[in-house]
Design brief:
Elements lengths: L1 E6 L2 E4 L4 E9 L7 E6 L6 E6 L5 E3 L7 E6 L4 E6 L8 E7 L2 E2 L3 E6 L1
Parallel strand pairs: 2-11
Antiparallel strand pairs: 1-3, 3-8, 4-5, 4-9, 5-6, 7-8, 9-10, 9-11
Length: 111
């Protein structure tokens, strides 16, 4: 079993920054990609960013150039640095590893 714990969400004004962290506990397979997803009210959960075990990254078009994903395999952690935040970035952000999900952390960007 794997447990994922997110932290770092909060309320920020448009143009501000937040740093989300995900700590993974349990049987971690370092050859598997990890990712961040978000779900806005009334919308489906969507991929925000993904990172392979080797460090290759993939971003949603809406966050390219503003968000940066990174991971530390030795510490079983993953970080999403979010800059130049926009109101449309508001939602619950979830950490994902294989079939496991964290509990989510709320990000609210005010205009």
């Amino acid at each position: 079993q794997v447990r994922l714990v997110e932290s770092g969400g909060g309320l920020v004004q448009a143009g501000g920054s937040l740093r989300l962290s995900c700590a993974a506990f349990g049987s971690i397979f370092h050859g598997v990609a990890m990712g961040w997803y978000r779900q806005a009210p009334g919308k489906q959960r969507e991929l925000v960013a993904q990172i392979s075990s080797g460090g290759s990254t993939n971003y949603a078009d809406s966050v390219k150039g503003r968000f940066t994903i990174s991971r530390d395999n030795a510490k079983n952690t993953m970080v999403l640095q979010m800059n130049s935040l926009k109101p449309e970035d508001t939602g619950v952000y979830y950490c994902n590893f294989f079939t496991f999900w964290g509990q989510g952390t709320q990000v609210t960007v005010s205009s």
